[in-house]
Amino acid sequence: MHANAIKTVQARMPRPTHRDASHVATFSSSGGLAHRCGQALSRSVRAATLTRRRFPWQHSGLSRAAARGSLAFATQRGGFKKGAERTPRRPSVSSHTRMTLQLVSSLPTRCSRLAVPRLRSPRASMSSSFSSLPEDASMETEAPHAPVTRERRLNPSLQEQLPKPYLARALEAVDPSHPQGTRGRDPRGLTVLQQHAAFFDRNGDGIIYPWETFQGLRAIGCGLPVSFFGSILINLLLTFPTQQGWLPSPLLPIHIKNIHKGKHGSDSESYDTEGRFDPSKFDAIFSKYGRTHPDALTLHELFSMLKGNRNIYDFIGWVTAAGEWLLLYSVAKDKDGLLQRETVRGAFDGSLFERLQDNKKSS
């Protein structure tokens, strides 16, 4: 039965001939290394034929024998040595060997059975596996498994609309419509946050007392109860963080010089911790929450923004942010009940307060 199985394997396997070897020598006769590789392949074909006749169970195909002969030639330049029929040596594949095989595989062939399989470069395989990834994956602003990133979108074109939107401005509140800030207004060397607070410094001495806060709230159109309680709460919260020393003052003064120390949490972060204006954070207010109108907020969207900006356990920040934005909405919304982008920008640098004061005086 063993002999019959061997005959069956021999009958089914292709028989290499010396004519195939002559083909190899023919297309490899271009000279140099290619000619030497062709001669090595010719010898390996003859050796494979002899090996198949003597040891059919060791035969694994002509292409493999040809490649093995080429490897042996590249490493020992002698084909198969004596005794190679019994124990074929498998040389280590070096860089020179890989170059030889790639050269042989690139040569034309007249017989498909003599073709050496092409070797794929590991670098090419790696590049092809990464080709399916998005080209700008590092620039994505939405994550598939975070629905909140799709609900609160960012403006990917802000860089084209405003130069360096990531750069916080110290003196001007800029946006795509006002790249130079508020025209005709002197910042007086104050940060944007200091300009916001300076409106309530009625005598210009750099200190805001509760009665000055009351006068400022009244000047922008707040009612008497709101102005009274608002002035007390605002000065009570900001007097200690902005004071010069450790001992609190009973007059509850707010020092504009240190107003950046009174920045609370759960806000839009349009002010940074030094009082500068961050254009990208300001733009995110409307790109995230301005769904009805791209440059305005409804009252419902305003509440959504306040909820989205909340920091964990920051109860003072929650209440303070809600009071500020609802107060702004009550005095500055338009006839359609919208809080316009330009209105909000003017509130950040204080120019809105001056316009509201002028409108109230003229009326």
Automatic annotation (TrEMBL):
Short name of one Pfam family: Caleosin
Sequence segments annotated as region (Disordered): 76-98, 119-150
Listed Low complexity bias regions: 119-134
Single GO molecular function: monooxygenase activity
Family per record: Belongs to the caleosin family.
Protein name as it appears in the record: Caleosin
